[in-house]
Specification:
Layout: H1 4-11, H2 20-41, H3 55-64, H4 74-89, H5 96-119, H6 131-134
Helix pairs in contact: 1-2, 1-5, 2-3, 2-4, 2-5, 3-4, 4-5
Length: 138
């Protein structure tokens, strides 16, 4: 399994050598790898199941069991799938590069959330931008 640190590094590298669909596949797979790390950190063997045709969504479902705060990234996962569908269904669309940029940002958001959540268990309990999470106690 690829480490979270390596996934973060990979997400910062533009994969211009890949086709449009190849880039979308890489970003979706990166999201799956992030959730594999989350599930492994929770002592789960990451599932190979699919939900609505996507392993990413099944991995999210698995990771949210017993941790309601993990649902904070459900929409992020769904948005990654949405952009994947946009890019792969219309790889020659004039907006394909913008869609890939958005997909990269969403994948990075998922990475940052999960990486933070592994370090700070309460992250996302209300929202990752919750005032309580941004305040320091003295």
């Amino acid at each position: 399994m690829k480490s979270l640190a390596q996934i973060g590094t990979d997400l910062n590298v533009v994969r211009a050598s890949l086709s449009t669909a190849g880039q979308a596949e890489f970003l979706l797979k990166s999201g799956e790898q992030v959730l594999e790390n989350w599930n492994a950190a929770k002592g789960n063997d990451p599932t190979s199941d699919r939900k609505e045709g996507f392993r990413l969504l099944a991995l999210h479902r698995q990771g949210a069991k017993g941790d309601a705060s993990f649902n904070a990234c459900r929409e992020t996962c769904r948005e990654l799938v949405y952009h994947y569908n946009l890019v792969t269904m219309e790889p020659d669309h004039p907006e394909a590069n913008k869609r890939l940029e958005m997909m990269q940002m969403v994948a990075m958001h998922l990475y940052l959330f999960v990486n933070g959540k592994i370090q700070v268990d309460g992250l996302g309990e209300f929202c990752c931008s919750s005032k309580g999470m941004r305040q320091t106690t003295g």
